[in-house]
Amino acid sequence: MATQIEMVSGIHSSLVKERAFSFDDCIRWSRLRFEEYFNNGIKQLLFNFPRDLITSSGAPFWSGAKKAPSPIEFNPDDQLHMNFIIAAANLRAVSFGLRGHNDVNLIKEVLSDVIVPEFAPKRDVVIPANEQEAKKQKETGGSNLDDEEEQRLHRLVSELPKPSDLAGYRVTPLEFEKDDDTNFHIDFITECSNLRASNYAIPPADRHTTKGIAGKIIPAMVTTTAMVTGLVCLELLKMVQKKKLECYKNSFCNLALPLFTFSEPLEPEKIKIREGWEWSLWDRFDIQGPKTLGEVIDELQEKHKLEVSMLSADSVLMYGFYMKPPVIAERREMEISALQAKLSGKPNNSRAISLVFCCSRMEDDEDVEVPSALYRC
User: Fold this and answer.
1) Is 27 inside a domain boundary?
2) C-alpha dihedral sign at 275, 277, 281, 286
3) Are 63 and 187 part of one and the same domain?
């Protein structure tokens, strides 16, 4: 089937033709996708259905609600165009386990070296003119491959690397998350939809509107959620005003009954490390990276007089006092996020890593519980 070629072509692109080894490769890939989606695709459509095309009934093909699109020529100085490149390149980088960025000047430098092939219309492409033709094409077309397509399919399969050649190579699918403003998901959807709208001279939509549509966000009237939000804001005001503990309130509410109950919160349990140093579950060490494993261990020794016996991150044991000296020496020289990625076998795309320690006081070698640490990559 025709979908076989599309599927194999996609695999071939990710593993051979457009495999990303650096963020620069992701930028080049996004530039070519811009050309494909918003320029060449429209030019192909106008080649199959020219602006002055007349139907068999004598009426203009492009009329009424059917608007004739216009191709978009890429302009690096156009903010909309650059936003698409930035979002698409960063999403591509995450899939390939690479670290991206949004430095416009650096991205423009890479774009200046991208060679974009000249558009040449495909004369054998059949584009359905209406829903009936699309349905008929889906039912009858693509069930068999001609000789040329069969040869292309076999060529693509033969060029795929062997599984043994892909040891350690990983491509990660992206799960749509609308509420993370740093993952470029909503940004990508916003730029794509606005560029397509520009193709058809449709007014663009802002990011907030796009997020509401893509995330299927439905505005709610006064509900329990709205009430809880108000109660939380009241507690935040008390924090800003630095009120005493007895001024705060836990709230238990049920609008269906209705029931409104309030109680005073208790102080969190305190754990003593040494005289003058106690901590609760709200405390943590804050470590600004990049730092090696050895630097993190030494920091706890020098600043807090704590001897680290074990250190783990997200269930991955990075350091244990019982490990062989060559292993400890090697790991101490590695940066924390790189070490975690190596031990877990998964690329680390997060901006922070939670570290858990097993420690003892240096003055008496007594084991003590200590807060976890937030390591900022």
Assistant:
1) yes
2) negative
3) yes
